[in-house]
Recover the amino acids of this structure.
């Protein structure tokens, strides 16, 4: 398999580590880095390359990434990169795993992606990320009376640099504090680095405007806790997932990268699960 990766930060580097330890080692890895980040990405890849069997390249445009002929591209760079790169790749007929799921809360961008995917005969694949139960929620999306409530709890340091700082003093927070209540769309647009799970649940189930979200800073939280409740005419369930924060970025649950690996495996295996 030849893969393209947009962005070379925490998730991309962890994913390459995981791929290399799995039975899915790619034959070729092409990284699309920003012009400013290209030299650092080249140096990092070169260091890794001494140990790895795959060939590799660093490019700085979506067109150049397409020329690397990846079978699959994984976006792990952020909303800006989804806007500037993903449509070109979809139009070229290449499927893209979009990890920055919250970007789809921007209705105009979601439309652009839809048109590009249809024009290229390609698909956007959204990984479940840190959360489970997306299969059942997606199945229940057509059930009557669907209601979904999500609570995302992280330690205060995981909210640093986000709009949570407009509402509470993170350093002084001594008990679990709700600093945001609203729709998944509002959460994803206001907290682009922190509300991907809210967006994923919403896109799978009741939609971005009808999925209720609470975001919480809790100094007692050892990791990132994603809990949600689903009620519908067909089935009700509750789920709580406590994940270690990823070693390189407290905002990201460590399980996210495993979910991306699963999405890649499902693209290559003879059976999907
Ligand atoms: N789906 C989920 O459950 C989930 C969970 C965690 C994080 N995320 C999202 O995944 C994305 C990546 O997370 P991360 O922890 O690896 O972030 P990171 O900040 O560690 O890495 C992002 C990298 O992308 C690069 N980049 C930014 N804009 C770019 C562009 N236009 N072109 C090329 N490169 C660009 C940055 O220089 C950086 O190297 C974020 O959008 C984050 O919100 C999703």
């Amino acid at each position: 398999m030849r893969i393209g990766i947009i962005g070379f930060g925490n998730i991309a580097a962890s994913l390459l580590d995981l791929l290399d330890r799995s039975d899915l080692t790619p034959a070729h890895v092409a990284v699309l880095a920003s012009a400013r980040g290209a030299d650092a990405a080249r140096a990092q890849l070169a260091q890794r390359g001494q140990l790895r069997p795959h060939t590799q390249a660093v490019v700085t445009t979506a067109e150049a990434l397409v020329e690397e002929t990846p079978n699959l591209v994984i976006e792990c760079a952020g909303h800006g990169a989804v806007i500037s790169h993903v449509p070109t790749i979809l139009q070229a007929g290449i499927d893209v795993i979009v990890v920055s799921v919250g970007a789809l809360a921007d209705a105009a961008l979601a439309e652009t992606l839809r048109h590009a995917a249809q024009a290229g005969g390609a698909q956007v694949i959204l990984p479940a990320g840190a959360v489970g139960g997306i299969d059942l929620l997606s199945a229940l999306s057509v059930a009557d009376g669907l209601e979904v409530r999500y609570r995302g709890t992280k330690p205060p340091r995981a909210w640093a640099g986000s709009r949570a700082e407009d509402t509470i003093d993170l350093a002084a927070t001594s008990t679990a504090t709700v600093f945001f209540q609203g729709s998944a769309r509002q959460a994803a647009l206001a907290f682009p680095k922190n509300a991907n799970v809210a967006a994923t649940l919403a896109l799978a189930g009741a939609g971005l405007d009808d999925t209720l979200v609470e975001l919480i800073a809790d100094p007692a939280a050892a990791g990132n806790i994603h809990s949600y409740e689903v009620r519908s005419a067909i089935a009700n369930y509750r789920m709580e997932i406590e994940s270690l924060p990823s070693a390189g970025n407290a905002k990201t649950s460590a399980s996210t990268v495993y979910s991306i690996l699963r999405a890649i495996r499902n693209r290559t295996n003879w059976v999907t699960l």
User: Anything to note?
Assistant: The mean pLDDT is 95. The chain has two domains: 2-125, 134-250. Residues 107-120 form the longest helix (14 residues).
